[in-house]
Amino acid sequence: MHVSRQLTFLTGIVIAAIPLSVSLAQPAKPTMKAIVVREYGGPEVLKYEDTPRPEPKEDQVLVRVIAAGVNPVDDASRSEKYAKFFGITLPFIPGYDIAGVVEKTGAKITKFKAGDRVYAYLDLKDGGGYAEYAVATEVEAAAKPKSISFTEAAGVPVVALTAWQALIDKAKLSAGQTVLIHGGSGGVGSFAIQIAKARGAKVIATASTRNQDMLKQLGADVAVDYTQQKFEDVAKEVDVVLDSVGKDTLARSYGVVKKGGFIVTLVARIDQAELDKHGIRGASLGVEPTSNELAEIGKLIDEKKIRVVVSQTFPLSEAVKAQEQVATGHTRGKIVLKVAEEPK
Ligand SMILES: NC(=O)c1ccc[n+]([C@@H]2O[C@H](COP(=O)([O-])OP(=O)(O)OC[C@H]3O[C@@H](n4cnc5c(N)ncnc54)[C@H](OP(=O)(O)O)[C@@H]3O)[C@@H](O)[C@H]2O)c1
């Protein structure tokens, strides 16, 4: 029944000249649970809220998120300095790693259809991963590796792409070369060790005492306990260094690279004077969403050449705890937020 007529029937007078039938009949905008940041600050600014569900643009897919990875950069995005640097504006939903199921596709999408299982690294400016739904472009998303869970898949994109772009795109690591990987037990390091081994390289990796076994299990040929030993005493004349630690570790790393070798840092500006002094090359890396590389990484996972280490999971509502853990700088493998039940 027409709503204004219904009201007349009940009250005996016409109380609404506007066609209420139109406004009330419109479907309510769908909402979702998400972590929303409305002000810069510590982990306490992460609020679990009901918020509008995003609509995919023509070049995006809408993904029903099953799990979202947590990275050190998520922590940085809450600070005004880094938010401005990444082009993030308040309010925003943090989170750059997702695994989920395509719900809907924009008009220009050709690679995916509804129901496809995907994982993605969402651009730093847009984020949106800590939510029940997120949007991704075809450059950001790839088919999820079939052999692992969504929880594991959510721990892959940012760190695996970083390791890949550092070792393969920048340093051109090849079979028979030796690579020193700092922080081998962390997110980036755990993938870097395995990517380097799959490439046929010899791997020297560093971590603290409790993670020495893990370095070996991931395939490192030599494990160095940085709390007990100077890595320079073990790693000499290496072809490539991957630095995810910076400061003194980076400063001491230039000297262990052989002439013509390469050093990549994820956390600092490379020092050209040091490169020149040692006759080596180097670069700082800013990881970029690259779906074809994510697809290559997925293949290596399904071929069992790379495994994903998820050390801890939290429900989406406990994103604060997850980010506090990541902020310690001593995470083993990955921390993942579980957003929904794993589909069968
Ligand atoms: N530029 C980029 O595009 C980019 C991309 C991804 C990540 N990053 C940055 O790279 C860093 C690592 O990221 P992540 O996700 O791998 O972090 P993570 O998961 O927190 O791992 C950090 C690892 O570093 C190890 N570590 C800490 N101090 C160390 C030291 N002095 N020497 C050797 N290892 C040490 C820790 O092992 P122990 O617990 O055994 O000490 C831990 O396993 C972060 O700062 C992140 O922001 C940059």
Total strand segments: 15
Helical content band: 25-40%
Oligomerization: single chain
What is Rg? 24 Å
The hetero compounds bound to this protein are: NADP nicotinamide-adenine-dinucleotide phosphate
Order of helices and strands: HHEEEHHEEEEHHEHEHEEHEHEHEHE
Q: Distance between termini?
A: 42 Å
**Individual helix count:** 12
Percentage of residues in strands: 25-35%
Structural features, described:
The chain is an alpha/beta fold and 344 residues long. Helices cover 28% and strands 26% of the residues. The protein contains 12 helices and 15 strands. The strands form 3 sheets. Strands 3, 4, 5, 6, 7, 14 and 15 form a 7-stranded mixed beta sheet that branches. A 6-stranded parallel beta sheet has the order 10-9-8-11-12-13, sandwiched between helices. Strands 1-2 form a two-stranded antiparallel sheet. Strand 12, helix 10 and strand 13 form a beta-alpha-beta unit. The chain is globular and about 75 Å long. 46% of the residues are buried. The N terminus is likely disordered. It binds NADP nicotinamide-adenine-dinucleotide phosphate (NAP). NADP nicotinamide-adenine-dinucleotide phosphate binds next to helix 3, helix 6, helix 7 and strand 9.
Attribute tags:
344 residues; single chain; 26% strand; six-stranded parallel beta sheet; binds NADP nicotinamide-adenine-dinucleotide phosphate; alpha/beta; disordered N terminus; 15 strands
